[in-house]
Structure formats: C-alpha cells, structure tokens
Write a structure and sequence with these properties.
single chain, alpha+beta, Phosphorylase Kinase, domain 1, Transferase(Phosphotransferase), domain 1, Rossmann fold, six-stranded antiparallel sheet, six-stranded mixed sheet, 18 strands
C-alpha cells in the first residue's frame, strides 16, 4: 500500500501489525498532519467490521493528551481503516527489552496511564487491553495509551438510582484481552468496570519497575492460573520502596472490592507513597468555572461569570500554563445536567480534560461579598489550594487578585508574581460581565442587549479594554445581519481603542482582523489575526478569520494552514471545515474537499460550538462539479431542509447557495422545469433580502441560471446590470459568493443565448477573478 492514497490519507510507510491488521504512517492530505492508519486484514469478516465500528465509537469519545487521538473510521477502495494520531517514540514493550525502567520514569509512565483512564472512564469507556505493547513512550518520558480496539462502552446513566449498564460487545463466553494483564473477572468473562483496567495498569507498572511480568509463566495456562489463584510476584523492595509495592499490591488484588475504585484514588496513593516525587509529564492546563451564586439572587449571576473570566485572564499570563477556552468549558458543562456542586469541578476536569480546575462560590449581601475558591488537581481529585476572602463589592478586584495569587502560588511554586493590572471601575466591570453573558447566549438576550451593557461600561470607564473589545465583536456581528459597512468601521474603531488600552488582549485583534477582511484590506487583516494567534494560541477564530481573509480573495494555498490550525484548536469548528473544504476544491484536491464538506455536514447534524445551517448545499455543489448529480440533488434538498429549521445568522445566504446549486444540478440532469423553479425561488428570496451576505453574487447566479433555463435575454441583461452596478444587494465575499463564480455563470448564460464572443470574454474575466471550475 506504500504510496497509495486511502480516502485523504497518503500511505508513506509500514509501522507494524496487530491482530486486526497492519498499521501505516500516513499523511492526512486534508488537514496537513501525520496519522497512524490501521487497515483491517482482508478478507474482511463481519466480526472485524463490527470490531472496527466499536473502536471508532470508543475512541471518538476521548480527547486527552495521554491518549492517542482518534480521527476517523472509514472505507475506501474496499479497505476498511481507522485513523489515529501518530505518536512518535517507542512502545513500552520495546523499552523493557533494555531492562527495568528507572523508578521516577516508570512512575511518570504510570501516572500518564492513570490520568488517561481518569478521562476515559469519565467518558464511559473501558480499555480492556492495557499492556506494554499498547503504551507509547516519547523521548521526554510522556506516555500515551494506544488501541481502544476492544474497548467496552459503558452507558452510565446520570439519573439517581439507575445502576450503570453495559452494552455487551463480544459474544457470550468470549475472552478478549491479553493474557498476563487481564483481571481475574475479565478472564472469567464476568461483567467489567473501571477496576479491571486498573488491575491491568498495576500489572504493567510492576513489570515496568522490575523488568519481569507480574504474573509469570512459560505457557498461557500458567499465566492464567497465576492471575486467578496466585498473588503477584513480589517486587524487589531494594529498588521499589515498600509503600509503592503496597499500592501496586492493592491494584492487583484478585477481588475487585479490594482494589482501587477509581484511577484518581490509585494515582493519589501512588504519588503519596512516592512522597510526591513525580507527576505525569502532560500539558499544564487549567479550567476556570463560573463561581456558584450561593445567595441564589439572579441579579447577582453576572458576578460568578465575571470572577471566572477575570481569573482566567490573570492566570493565562502564567508562563507555560494553558487556560481552557471559556466556550469549551461552557459546552462541556452544558452536558453535565444537574451535577452536584461538590462533584461538578472534578467531573468537568476529567471530561475536558485538564490538570486543574479552579472553582468556587460567592455570597453577596448588601455592600459586602464573600468569595471562596478551590483549586482541584483532576488526576488525584485532591483540593490542593483554597482561599476565602471577604470585603466590599467595590473591592472585588483586590479580592480576585488574592484568589489569583493563591492559585498561582500553587500552580507555580516559587514562580514570579502575577503581573499587576489596573483595576477597572466596579460599575464598568459589572456592565461588561452582564453584556458578556448576553453575547455568549448564556441567557435570553441579543446583540443589542450586549451592546447596551458594553456601552454603559465604557461610559463609566472609557478605557475598559474588555468592553471595548466586546463592542468591536458586537458591531462586527451586526454587519453579518445588516451588511452595513459603517458597522465595520465602528467595530474597527472600538478594536483599536481596546488594543491601545491593553495591547496583550487577543480578542480586539480578532475582530479588527474581521473588519479589515470585510473592508478588503487583506494583508492587514491577516497580520492582526497572526498577532492574535501569538497572544492566545487557543483562540479558534483568529486562524479562522485569517483563512477567510486569504481564501475569499483567491489565495487558497495560503489559507489552508490557517483553517487547519483552526481545526487543530477546535476540531468541531464547522465553519473551518467548510472553508478548508472549499479551499481544497479550488486547488483541485477533490477527495480532500469532499471529506471536509462531509465533515461539516456531520458537525451540523450532531452540533458544533460554531454551527452552520444548510452546509449540505455546499456539498451538493461539490458533487455537481464531480458529476454525481443524484447525490448533488439530494444534498441540496438536505441543505434547504436544514436552513428552514434554523435561525442562523447566515440562513438567507445558505438558502441562496442551496437553491442555486440545486438549479445548476437540475440543468445538468436535463430537468429544465426543476431548474427554473429553483432559480426563480432563489431570485425571489434574494430580492426580498437585500442584506443577505453575498446575496448580490447569488442573485447574479440565479438570474444567469434562469437565462439558461429558458427565461430569455431579459434575465441575462438584469444579471449583467446587477453585477456591474452592484446596487440594492450585498456583494460581500462568501464561499461560492465571488466574482469568479458569478462571472462563470454569466459566461454560461451568454453561451446559452448564442453570444459566443461575450461568453468567451466573460469566461476570461472569471478565470482572472479566480474561478477554477472546469467547463
């Protein structure tokens, strides 16, 4: 398979083989990254197909730095494959061939595995095949858990009183796993829970420390008997302190009731036994939760989100610490339901995942406020720092500073103090916090309500950078509704004021870049987005707007890495999938384009933090270009159905895209009546919505399509005049809404009228404007 392309993966070299097939190093041509692609052995049995689906279902739930990231499962050219993150390094089995691993390194490997299981178990996934072959160790000592291929999914019910249930994914009586590492209950084909995986980790860790299997034997039968009936081989206490040996012995208890119940409990005891001498060498990440309103007064709700945002901003300035983006925290929190306040922080931390969670509560009575905070280490479940502060509400910034300093002192012992920041006025702080809640749709509201609060904030404090950035975002988003260029100028003005007030904020640069791209100042826009990416590498909209600035102006090759970076930061960014797909299409990479647009459709169906509405219409246009007319028609209709169910801000534009693509598809099928209907509906829709983003380009395409469908020269003349004068409609760029696309449709319409010279001239202009679609 070397040198072949499987879907959008270019196979480069063979990495190895396992029970399910061969594994190859591949290049993901769509996303520009390496991948490990597992290809199932042929001939493919139904059992292996089911096994692959199970692996995909299990892996798709997991996103953790100590777990090889699952990308996708698919089938191409008769081969069924699974694509995962490529992890450089060596397996723990290969490392053990050189002898026992030094204690500090071995315990760090064990910590990585337990951190990984902490996340996987919280997501409802058991591994069931933890062994040295499935652990990859990097040069820096970090370990990643591989191959959830025989994982059992647990459907843990959240409602009180419901016992956890399991979906049986193996035939009755089947034993799945690797002898020597399976728990006694797994060998007996009994129901499994998290404690079975913890048994396997303990067995692997014993072998890592000693260089010898925890349950030795010359045959499989001897090793099975050792697990079922004998205690693990004692560790040499000269190399391993008895406290650590005792922890591992508990992990290897034959009776599950005597084992650790959770990975966090196991890790906590292991670290205590080692006198805290090791940590898992994983990224330093912190999530800050909204503080709980103990007074239950809804008028005080702004304070909880305000404290969280301020603390996140302050702590993000600690060197080497990454703060989880707020929208990601909110998205995961929304899935927890009514979790108990005491358990919410830990559960959120496991699911996000992150190393620490900062949470707390506040009480506001009269002019006084009390704030308490808890810094929780997710891996062990230990509350590692607490702080309680009291004072006047007017002194909230000093109270927040004390909380931030206490957390920073624990996160970076002996490190430099947090940089001092000027405190805003309390009324500006409150107005901003209220406006932010409306902007983020945390409660009923609109952009106008957010704008009102932000304006009140800067009325109180004209240099309040966060509120100035908020107004920049509001006016930038108002442009998408109104397509009024004055909104862009207002957004840019507020953004520049915010940057002057605080040059280290990423948000105003993001929105300044957006305003500049809509004003056609492309290089300036890209520069602002690059600077925002430097300030906040986790901000998805900075690379996304950078990609838009380049791609919508025909610089598709330059746009690719920006969209790819967006999806690296936020894999569920539907808009980035659309932008990346269209860039690939314009560059002639049809397979990669199709994969990206299918991914965008999938994200729209299942839900995305940055949702589209009717993106299937774009996939329909791609399929039309590829000659799959039946598929194109179905996708266009799917896009129209999705649009009708949505109130997305780009709803009108997406409806026009879907109708125009449907009309072109019908023409290609020879169904002139359907084409005329689609184009007529598109024209009527767009004329009634003159502020639809890119609607002018789409109306030109609809009128040109009507010409081809037999409407005559009048429709063509109207299209030419609209394209020339650009009056009464919005001619902002969007995907498919470009000069190149409009001129190409005009060329086709002229040819349908027999105006050969005019058609040739229009085609030349279309090519000069960036159209790459084949005739």
């Amino acid at each position: 398979m070397i040198g072949q392309t499987l879907s959008h993966y270019l196979i480069e070299r063979r990495l190895g083989a396992g029970g399910m097939g061969e594994v190859f190093l591949a290049r993901d041509l769509a996303l520009g990254r390496p991948a490990a692609v597992k290809v199932l052995a042929q001939p493919l049995s139904s059992a292996l197909r089911s096994r692959l689906v199970r692996e995909a279902e299990a892996c798709a739930r997991l996103q953790h730095p100590a777990i090889a990231t699952f990308y996708e499962a698919g089938e191409a050219d008769g081969a069924v494959f699974l694509a995962l993150e490529y992890v450089a390094g060596e397996t723990l089995r290969d490392r053990l061939r050189r002898g026992p691993v030094p204690r500090g390194e071995a315990l760090a490997i064990g910590a990585c595995l337990l951190e990984a299981l902490n996340h996987a178990h919280a997501a409802g996934v058991l591994h069931r095949d933890i062994k040295p072959e499935n652990v990859m160790v990097s040069d820096g000592g970090a370990a990643k858990l591989l191959d959830f291929g025989i994982a059992r999914l647990t459907d843990v019910e959240k409602s009180a009183g419901d016992a956890p249930t399991e979906a049986a994914l193996t035939e009755a009586g089947a034993v799945v796993g690797t002898i020597g590492y399976m728990s006694p209950e797994q060998l007996r084909s009994q129901p499994l829970d998290e404690r079975s995986d913890l048994f396997s980790v303990a067995a692997v860790l014993c072998e890592t420390l000693s260089g010898e299997p925890a349950f030795p034997g010359d045959t499989a039968a001897e090793r099975i008997a050792a697990i079922l009936y004998d205690d693990a081989k004692p560790l040499q206490t000269g190399a391993v302190p008895p406290e650590i040996a005792a922890v591992l012995a508990r992990g290897l208890a034959r009776d599950p009731e005597r084992r650790y119940r959770t990975a966090s409990a196991f890790l906590a005891d292991l670290r205590a036994a080692a006198s805290g001498e090791f940590v898992a060498p994983l990224p330093e990440t912190l999530a800050v939760l909204d503080f709980e309103n103990l007074s239950k007064n809804p008028d005080d709700a702004w304070l909880g989100s305000g404290i969280a945002e301020s603390l996140a901003a302050d702590l993000s300035r600690l060197s080497g610490l990454a703060v989880v983006p707020r929208d990601r925290v909110l998205a995961v929190r929304s899935k927890l339901g009514d979790a108990a306040p005491g358990s919410e922080a830990l559960e959120l931390g496991r699911l996000l995942p992150c190393r620490w969670v900062l949470s707390g509560a506040y009480q506001h009575v009269g002019p006084r406020v009390r704030v308490t905070s808890r810094l929780t280490e997710v891996g062990t479940g230990e509350v590692v720092a607490t702080e309680k502060v009291d004072g006047a509400l007017d002194d909230i910034f000093a109270l927040q500073d004390r909380i931030a300093e206490a957390a920073a002192g624990r996160l970076r012992p002996g490190g430099a103090a947090l940089p001092a920041r000027a405190a805003p006025r309390i009324d500006a702080y409150e107005r901003h916090a209220r406006g932010r809640r409306f902007f983020l749709h945390l409660e009923k509201g609109s952009l106008d309500q957010a704008r009102q609060f932000y304006e009140e904030a800067i009325g109180a404090d004209p240099d309040h950078a966060a509120s100035l950035a908020g107004l920049a975002s509001v006016h930038a988003m108002r442009f998408t509704f109104r397509t009024d260029m004055r909104e862009l100028e207002t957004a840019a003005t507020y953004a520049r004021r915010a940057i002057a007030a605080d040059p280290d904020l990423a948000e105003p640069r993001i929105w300044l870049g957006y305003a500049l791209l809509r004003q056609g100042r492309i290089d300036e826009a890209v520069e602002q987005e690059r600077r925002a990416m430097e300030i906040d590498p986790a901000a998805p909209f900075a690379p996304y707007f950078g990609g838009c600035a380049l791609g919508l102006n025909g610089r598709y090759a330059e746009a690719l890495p920006f969209f790819q970076r967006t999806l690296e930061v936020e894999p569920r960014h539907g808009w980035a999938c659309l932008g990346l797909g269209w860039a690939h299409l314009e560059l002639g990479s049809a397979a990669e384009a199709r994969w990206c647009l299918e991914k965008a459709v999938e994200l729209e169906r299942v839900g995305s933090p940055h949702p589209t509405a009717g993106v299937a219409g774009y996939l329909g246009e791609l399929l039309r270009r590829q000659g799959d007319l039946d598929g194109a028609r179905a996708r266009c209709l799917e896009g129209l159905e999705a649009v009708e169910k949505s109130d997305n801000m780009y709803r009108d534009s997406f409806r026009g895209v879907s109708l125009c693509a449907l009309g072109r598809t019908a023409l290609a099928q020879g169904d002139t009546a359907a084409a005329r209907t689609a184009f007529t509906q598109a024209a009527a829709h767009l004329r009634g919505r003159p502020h639809a983003l890119g609607g002018g380009f789409l109306l030109v395409q609809a009128l040109a399509g009507l010409t081809r469908a037999g409407a005559g020269a009048g429709a063509f003349d109207d299209a030419m005049k609209l394209h020339r004068d650009r009056e009464g409609q919005n001619f902002s760029f969007m995907w498919v809404c470009t000069d190149g696309a409009a001129l190409l449709e005009l060329s086709r319409a002229a040819a349908a009228l027999g105006r050969t010279d005019e058609a040739r001239d229009l085609l030349a202009r279309a090519r000069a404007a960036g159209s790459r679609e084949e005739e």
